[in-house]
Amino acid sequence: MTWSVFGKVRARETDEGIELFIDGLTTQAKYYKPLVYEFFRKEWRGSRPAWGDYAVEIRMEHVGDPPWMDLDNLAKALLDAIKGFVFHDDSQVARLLVERFEGEREQIHIRVYALKR
Predict the structure, then answer these.
(1) Which end of the chain has fewer CB atoms at under 10 Å, N or C?
(2) HSE-up of 2 (CA within 13 Å, CB side)?
(3) What is the pTM of this model?
(4) Comparing C-alpha atoms, which of 36, 40, 13, 27 is closest to residue 111?
């Protein structure tokens, strides 16, 4: 379970699925899609996309006042970026949690795991 790192993005496979961190925050959700996409295209050597239902948890951590960012746009950009690398299609996301909270550093934490039904 070693970390793969490319620029501001780091990820690893866990027993449950994939865990991904993006350092820093910006109010432009469109910034994250190419950043994460390039990470998966150039650096990721982990598992390949699979079929089935998935849960995706996106946690935006901020320091101080929360940034003026639409969480819908953030979720859409990140789902577009991981689609094709973790799962095949957005329709496989059976559970989606997107939250914002005050943390110790500015980052985005994404967990993706298969749902056992």
Answers:
(1) C
(2) 5
(3) 0.90
(4) 13
